[in-house]
Amino acid sequence: MKRCFLFFLLLLALGAGAQAPVPYSSADIYHGLRKLNVLGSVLYIAAHPDDENTRLLAYLAKDRQYRTGYLSLTRGDGGQNLIGNEQGVALGLIRTQELLAARRIDGAEQFFSRAYDFGFSKNPEETFAHWDKEKILSDVVWVIRKFQPDVIITRFPTTGEGGHGHHTASALLANEAFRAAADPKRFPEQLAFVQPWQARRILWNTFNFGGNNTTRPDQFRVDVGGFNALLGKGYGEIAAESRSQHKSQGFGSARGRGEALEYFATTGGPAPKTDLLEGIDLSWKRVPGSSRVAQEVQKALETFDFHQPQKSVPRLAALHKTLKALPDGYWKQQKLKEVEQLIGQASGLWVEAYTTQPSVAQTDSVTVNFIANDRLGNGIRLNRIEMEGVDTTLGMTLEPNRNLFLQKTISVPATKPITQPYWLQERMTEGAFTVSNQQLIGEPDIQPAYMVHFTLAIAGEAFRFSRPLRYKYTDQVKGELYQPFVVLPPVTFSEMQAYYLKNALGNTMDVGLTARKDIGVPAPVPAVQVGPAATDTLPLLLGPLSLKKGQAYQTAFAPSSLQEKAYRLNIAPDDGRPGYSLLSIDYDHIPAITWFKKAVTKVELLDVKTAGKRIGYIVGAGDKVPEALEQMGYEVVLLTAKELSKNNLKQYDAIIAGVRAYNALPWLNSFYGRLMQYVKEGGNYIVQYNQLGNLPAMGPYPFSLSRTRVTDENAPVQVLNPGHPVLNVPNKIGPDDFKGWVQERSTYHATALDKNFETVLSLNDKGEQPDGGSLVVARYGQGTFVYTGLTFFRQLPEGVPGAFRLWANILALNQKKSF
Hints:
The protein is built from 16 helices and 45 strands. The protein is of the alpha/beta class. It starts with 7 loop residues before the first strand and ends in an 8-residue tail after the last helix. The strands form 13 sheets. It has a 7-stranded mixed beta sheet, with helices on both faces. The protein has a 7-stranded mixed beta sheet with strand order 36-35-37-38-45-44-42, with helices on both faces.
């Protein structure tokens, strides 16, 4: 009896998202050998990161060993962030990497469409008003034609039980694409790269959660709760590890064990009776001329030595040769990739390319280190190393378990693209990213700055292993770390925050730049382009500038000549290149993320009157309201448990609880008494929206939260109490103040209000009843308590004038002159 063994082999993951080398044991290799004889594929389709059924994906990929994929239509850009203040595109970048981390655990592959998550919608009609339905449908068809799934599974139904309009839209698109992918008349431009494809069936993976049970005894069901002895884990355990990667959503999950039934309703094609892939030949018989392949795979399985996996390399090399001789086709190419990966794993081969610096600027140079090691002594011959700027022919046999180390310095041309996520390289439309390169559509990750190709001879066969160039370093606490390597422009500018200045004339705006390489004299002179179309240019720096790599320069720009209400500023070097701001995201659970914004911002000359000066802010799930408050002229103090317990709260003209603060901060409830005393003695406590749950008391009088939200950012607003100070002091709020709002009006309204609460506004989406719970105010003692579901956390960073004016009034409620 073969025993599953004792040591680990390391191989750099092929995907650009892995932070560190991925360990493969002999059990993993044996598992991969078994998969070679399984020719079946399943594509799961839903709308967002976290929609996927990770237990089912793990079962399909690791038990049934199908090629398994998850197509998330969006990158989750419109959600909330429990680990930081990133929103929009930045949040989508985080959730992209969280999904890739999840897939590395459950064994499925990840895909995306170009759809942008613009926030909650209540029905598919609202969703398709933002998404170009035909454009997103073409993406789903493209992924189906490339992936060629035998079976498609949707998370949600077409009939609306999924709740979110994106959910229903994902099911509608999947079912339409199920038919359209087989029709050569639909999206014929794709046929230059792919062929029409008809999946056998499409199923809806019914569910029982959120108080909605859509499963029925007569539906086809599968137990996906099994235990995999080779992996030492059950699929419920693997699923929990996978789902727990969604850290920005707070989806840490307990490991499940035991029976777990999944139910399915057929929405297209013949319904299954005994198996999800019923009626599909999963053997090599589906590939013409492949009769020898299954036999060779079986021999490799029978002779596999868990203690010396390298003994399988000659058989795998022979299998690779047999596969290459087959006619071209989908399964030939897929299994060639799998065999090549197994050869690298079983041989103990180590190849990598790394730098000791995290980035390089265009027109600068970088030193690259190449390492190759035949760790198990297979007689591997390294013939060639190739990358941009390097082409080295070696033709040498690697010594057993000895590192071959080479070092090359390359120059980075000015034409080398900066390392930008491909879906952010072009200007996006309202509801979708713009990706002109058809072959990039659907790809999950950022394209590496450089790819390095090692050509080797193993057991008489030629192989080409590709690795992304990485930045490698050692942290004193965390040890050896790998991060993506990045190409930068020669100069980057400080992030161009939007400025919304009260009486902006005469005020100054700080503009900073950082040299990403040594800049000599004369240097490009940055300039500010000013105007509604940014056509007027004003010099920002006078005379030549000399900076060392990493050196920063800061100056002030006075927009004293601005006379109109809104302006667009574009900061750029005077050398024909666009100016970019460098942004970074760094969390331990995902690779470091670097991306760029064009150094463009707008200046709004807002007519906003303020009262009060010092604001205390309790940061909840993360938002950019504090920065907006500072732009309004307030002094903002971030309050943690320490400050709330020790500081004199009377010093604050208002205290604000950030979005979802009571969801995210368990300790906040312990300060209920202090906060209510602050209000009673004349303070102004403002609580922004929280989600439903086991919430403590938040205000001085009872109220509850509802699921009511107004997702139409242009929904009409009715004034219920026109004389209330919040609509009059210090700013007179009128209909124009509710124009230009973004994404949504409000969420999680207050309900079941105590008689001491006053309602001010009434909102509703089309076809729904008006609701007054978006902004409620109560006097308590000498002070004021406010709960608001109005989405200030979205409006203020976008510079919505009316939101600033209304927010200033809320902050002024405790000021004596307000009443």
